[in-house]
Design a protein that fits this description.
The structure holds 2 protein chains of 2 kinds. By secondary structure, chain A is an all-alpha fold. Chain A is built from 14 helices and 2 strands; from the N terminus they run ααββαααααααααααα. Classes of the chains: A mainly alpha, B alpha/beta.
């Protein structure tokens, strides 16, 4: 541990001035950090360091890693599959962050300002719970369910279409390389909406009802109220949801794993799955570690950018329109 | 002297973290009276039944020794097998995946016990082509070198067919590729899709490989599977062209890219398709369906067929009770266990010919013995064996081929690129 860190940490202790006569207690508080520090080191720092080291080696997972410098990273930059996986990440940001946020705000507003007053809060809570159900389902179960629904021959979607005489619309949902990514995106939207709705509804509950009453008296329509009050008041929640879901979208693995395994062909491959398959199926551990490192860097950049945007944006609720 | 608390806390945290992330060594010392056996074959399979039978024989012959059997999953072993073998907590004997990318990698890394001399001194009958899957050379290439594993069973890919549908449409069992295509055409003209295929899964690559084997011989097979000389990619190109043609002729449904192997097999068993190109591991399920008569023919016109000895019993280098492990492997090779396997519909490697009691057992068992003898052809292993990760590439490209997302030439180019990239550099 370099001593520079200890110096900076020591300055922080002066914030807590010990009482006279208890100077031997100085530093005693450091032990309270221990559990968190152990967890962080064991779960984050040490594995991350190991991963960085492996990314600089050529290693099959057994035997001794051979140091090769930045060769894995050079190979990555020339690997079309790597770039394709990042292109798909953009699609999944749309499916996991942008669409669920947009739909979530709308649904939350409808539940909170329309369903709840008209039909009672029980109905609104029940609906909220049903939207949240996909979040509770284990992803493996959800994956099996959707695979069964998408099955081209006896899946419920195609069967229903055929029964309605719309057999022409029946598709090979997960088996057609042009469609598969949209089919997966659809599942992800379904998966994420519950989360956004719950956050936005709790956000709306802290909005002063007087705002809506005043707008109502001034004769503002529902859509005007939604635009000026709901969207504005929910800005901090929207920012937080966008950060968490975007990071989740960049890391997405399980839905891809259970639905398509990156297929058909490589039409739904994402960085996390690409890294996983380098680790375990092609046993190019060094290469997989390099993918994971680049992914970690990308996520950090996106998260920091969004956090900055959020802090800038949620200072005071000024109307952002020009 | 003042201790620096920050440094102390950091040191303690780091030490604890290292312990938690498993950087410390440790492990249990093996109990000499326990045999730890792992396999991943599910309880309803013929293999599992045969091995449980072997365990009961072992327990009878080793009073005082308890057998601890743990059921793993195939995925677990495929993905973390080598980590397990590298740990201090290995079983004494376990089922392991055959092939360059799996057993080959761990054999090369010195994680498996060399069984060459054990096999000789105990005079195991392992001198046949089915048992080649247990041989690995110094580069971890399968098929020659030292013996690291012993297999109990075999498998091969043929064409399962629905005899009732064949009779109904007056189709004869084809013996050449041309006759096979005629049969496919007959069914298509009658409005039936002739081939059940799950090209989102292994059946796709198996069919492509069967078509490629039509243009291959022992020499080009050795080139592909064992890197002996130049690979004949033109055979693959012809195969891909034919397969694409079959899709266009509606012998194969384009929907098959969204259909896993299990669904394809289920559809065949439900009588929806006249034919299903797949392996002997379907035998049990196909034999059990009572609604129509089934039989199997080998891929018409081919001398070589996808197939091999099965997965291996291996003894980890770090195993604690190696002698007990050898005893167990020996018991699994005995005729009584092998015949038991045949009765359950498995494909034995050391049974007495004609000993199976079920029709399916007789069919696949005796046919496998024929393939082993090499008189009517031979076993060509599987298309994904030569290099690690080829399976995913084959799957991706077969789906592209069937889905019309890539030309046959592009498909073969992609397979070749992955093959060349994965070649072991001696």
């Amino acid at each position: 541990m370099p001593s520079t860190n200890t110096v900076t940490l020591n300055t922080a202790t002066h914030a807590v001035t010990p009482r006279k006569g208890t100077s031997e207690r100085r530093g005693g508080y450091w032990w309270y950090i221990l559990p968190g520090a152990v967890g962080f080191l064991a779960v984050v720092a040490v594995p991350f360091g190991m991963n960085l080291w492996y990314s600089l080696t050529s290693w099959r997972g057994v035997g001794d890693p051979v140091f090769i410098g930045f060769e894995n990273y050079q190979r990555l930059l020339g690997d079309p599959l790597f770039w394709a996986s990042f292109r798909h990440s953009v699609a999944f940001i749309v499916a996991m962050a942008i669409l669920p946020t947009a739909i979530g705000v709308l649904v939350a507003a409808v539940l909170f300002n329309y369903i709840s007053p008209k039909f009672g809060s029980k109905v609104a809570s029940f609906l909220r719970a049903t939207y949240y159900l996909p979040q509770i389902l284990p992803i493996a179960v959800a994956g099996v369910l959707w695979k069964w629904m998408y099955q081209p021959q006896y899946g419920i979607i195609n069967t229903t279409l055929r029964d309605l005489g719309l057999g022409g619309l029946a598709q090979n949902w997960l088996g057609d390389s042009d469609l598969a990514i949209y089919a997966v995106m659809n599942v992800l939207v379904w998966l994420q909406i519950g989360y956004t709705v719950v956050v936005f509804m709790s956000g709306l509950s802290r909005v002063d009802p007087a705002l809506y009453e005043a707008a109502e008296l001034d004769g503002a329509s529902w859509s005007q109220q939604f635009r000026t009050i709901t969207l504005n008041q929910l800005r901090p929640e929207i920012a937080v949801v966008l950060i968490t879901t975007s990071v989740a979208a960049l890391k997405v693995f399980a839905p891809i794993f259970v639905l398509t395994r990156g297929g058909p062909g490589t039409s739904t491959i994402v960085p996390a799955y690409f890294s996983f398959s380098s680790f375990f199926t092609t046993t190019k551990v060094g290469y997989g570690a390099a993918v994971a490192s680049v992914l970690a860097l990308m996520i950090s950049v996106v998260a920091v950018a969004l956090l900055r945007y959020q802090t800038r944006n949620s200072e005071g609720f000024d109307d952002g329109r020009p | 002297m003042r201790r620096n608390p920050v440094r102390l806390v950091t040191a303690v945290a780091a030490a604890l973290a290292l312990v938690m992330t498993g950087c410390s060594s440790g492990g249990d010392s093996g109990d000499p009276n326990t045999l730890k056996v792992w396999w991943w074959e599910t309880d309803d399979s013929a293999l599992s039944a045969a091995w449980k039978h072997a365990v009961s024989i072992f327990e009878k012959e080793h009073p005082g020794v308890t057998v601890k059997q743990e059921l793993k999953t195939y995925e677990q072993m495929q993905q973390s097998g080598q980590l397990i073998l590298d740990s201090n907590d290995t079983p004494d004997v376990l089922e392991y995946l055959k092939g360059n990318a799996t057993a080959g990698v761990v054999a090369k890394a010195g994680l498996l016990t060399d069984l060459t001399e054990v096999a000789q001194s105990r005079s195991w009958k392992v001198d046949n082509t089915a048992q080649q899957v247990g041989l690995y050379d110094d580069n971890g290439l399968m098929g020659s070198g030292k013996r690291y594993g012993v297999t109990n069973y075999g498998e091969y890919v043929g064409v399962w067919y629905n005899q009732d549908l064949f009779a109904q449409h007056n189709v004869q069992v084809p013996t050449t590729l041309a006759e096979f295509e005629n049969a496919l055409k007959t069914f298509t003209d009658k409005g039936l899709t002739p081939l059940a295929l799950g090209s989102a899964d292994y059946p796709g690559p198996h069919l492509l490989y069967s078509l490629a084997l039509a243009h291959m011989d022992e020499k080009s097979l050795a080139a592909y599977q064992r890197f002996e000389g130049e690979v004949d990619w033109s055979a693959w190109e012809k195969a891909a062209t034919t397969m694409r043609q079959w899709v266009e002729n509606k012998y194969i449904s384009t929907d098959s890219t969204g259909i896993p192997a299990q669904d394809a097999g289920n559809a065949f068993i439900a009588g929806q398709y006249p034919m299903f190109v797949s392996g002997t591991w379907w035998g049990g399920q196909i034999a059990e369906q009572p609604t129509f008569k089934t039989d199997q023919f080998l891929f018409p016109g081919n001398k070589l067929h996808p197939g091999s000895g099965g997965n291996l019993w291996v003894v980890p280098a770090k195993a604690k009770n190696k002698d007990l492990a050898y005893d167990f492997i020996e018991i699994t090779q005995r005729p009584e266990v092998q015949n038991f396997l045949a009765d359950k519909g498995g494909v034995p490697v050391a049974s007495e010919p004609g000993s199976a009691s079920s029709a399916m057992g007789l069919l696949v068992g005796d046919r496998f013995t024929e393939l082993l003898s090499g008189d009517k052809g031979g076993l060509a292993w599987y298309p994904d064996w030569p290099v690690a990760g080829l399976n995913d590439v084959l799957l991706a490209n077969t789906t592209n081929l069937v889905g019309g997302d890539a030309t046959p030439q592009q498909v073969v180019e992609a397979i070749k690129a992955a093959y060349d990239a994965g070649k072991p550099t001696a």
